[in-house]
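Marked as duplicate of an earlier ticket. Keeping the data here for the record.
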Amino acid sequence: WLPGQNKLAAISGFGAGGANAHLLLQSVELPRRTGPAPESCLILLSAASAAQLLELAAALQACLLPQQQHTALSLVDIAHTLWEGRQAYPVRLAIIASDLLGLQAALTQYLRGDTAGSFWFTGTVEASQQPTAQSELLAQSGALSPWTVDVLQRFAKAWVVGAAPKPTGIYQAWQPRRVSLPGYPFLRERHWLPALPAGSSLS
């Protein structure tokens, strides 16, 4: 397949009993983006526990390594995917980055236990936390424009403690695309039935 050409593929599956299926796949040409990217993006990560958030941050950092990227990742696409396509859990990390190198640097600082700085923030949402009037104002669709670092910092500080809801569609002006990123690191707990006494049976 040459770049720029329409791509078609066929997949056939045949069952032992005679059933079969045939599937045709065709590539989709994505629209070209117009206009400059935002000056900075807000990267939001959250998990149910601090250990899971560390695991999620490490997975995202590994995903950003050049040898792991099959296609060039865009910071806007990453921010949009995590903003629109992930559920918000109580333990949170918010990173303000202007490029992928800045995102990697912030993840490195967080993973080694550095104190939060002016471009990344952590917090835990309490069950009784309610959005404040100021944070609700920030969450309005137009409140994050222009994309100044000061506005992003105020929103990030409010979001990590649950004091700011997320507006939707804030990246639409830059024609974002959802990209493949690491999924949620669920707990790997095993729950076995207790051993039965010798000679007993299930009934």
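See parent ticket for discussion. The mean pLDDT is 81.
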